[in-house]
Design a protein that fits this description.
By secondary structure, the chain is an alpha/beta fold. The protein contains 11 helices and 10 strands. The model has no long low-confidence stretch (mean pLDDT 90).
């Protein structure tokens, strides 16, 4: 469930499935895209309810996929919509970000962690990887060396290491305060700065290859994915 609250110059978008650590289903991806694209406010603040930011894709959905590439493309469209929206998206990460939750943070313009934030790409342990644009954005944000070690090892980074690698830009107790500060800028200037820094020309081709590879892996590791869901 995606909850929206407009507060002056900031739209607050909350991933509100705390019992599932805010795991995302296909409908949630669509609603998240609509929430961000529909923002009239110059800044959108993205957060998770409860004690996690986002556990990524709902594992029950992944285990039952008939067309994994289509699911990957849906996620890619949502992440691209966030990256390309007129509104500046500030992501406040408090608690766990895993898999697609890391990819969601990567799509945001500004990533702010609390001291309790942790980050992990656990998919390699059961034969998957982040296919919502993660293989495109992660090396841009962290650098290729740190991105490869992070994604291949499946290990969890704490907030301090996320800061060191560039995965987040600050560690604060209240990430919302950063969103409010950015919202004090002129709306047109904020939009232009985002558009110029975000200018990319070759994402579509890379993401198509990413989705196809994800589809192959889901087919190859269907039994392991189902077993992980059962655990």
């Amino acid at each position: 469930m995606i909850r929206i609250r407009d507060e002056g110059r900031v739209r607050v978008v909350t991933l509100d499935r705390p019992d599932s650590r805010n795991a995302l289903r296909p409908a949630d991806l669509t609603d998240l895209r609509t929430a961000v694209e529909g923002a009239d406010e110059p800044v959108t603040y993205l957060r998770g309810a409860g004690d996690a930011f986002c556990a990524g894709a709902d594992i029950d959905v992944v285990a039952a996929l008939d067309d994994a590439a289509a699911f990957a493309r849906r996620g890619q469209r949502t992440m691209s919509a966030i990256a390309n929206a007129e509104t500046v998206v500030v992501c406040g990460i408090d608690g766990a970000a895993r898999g697609g939750g890391v990819e969601l943070a990567l799509a945001a313009d500004v990533r702010i962690a609390t001291p309790a934030a942790t980050f992990g790409e656990p998919g390699v342990s059961f034969g998957l990887f982040g296919a919502w644009g993660g293989t495109v954005r992660l090396p841009r944000v962290m650098g290729e060396g740190d991105a490869l070690e992070f994604a291949l090892s499946g290990r969890v980074l704490d907030a301090d290491e996320a800061l060191r690698t560039g995965l987040v830009s600050r560690i604060v107790d209240d990430p919302r305060a950063v969103a409010d500060a950015i919202a004090g800028g002129k709306s047109d200037a904020l939009a232009v700065v985002k558009r110029r820094i975000r200018d990319r020309r070759d994402d579509e081709m890379q993401e198509r290859a990413e989705a196809d590879a994800f589809d192959d892996l889901v087919r190859s590791h269907a039994d392991e994915i189902a077993a992980d869901r059962a655990d």
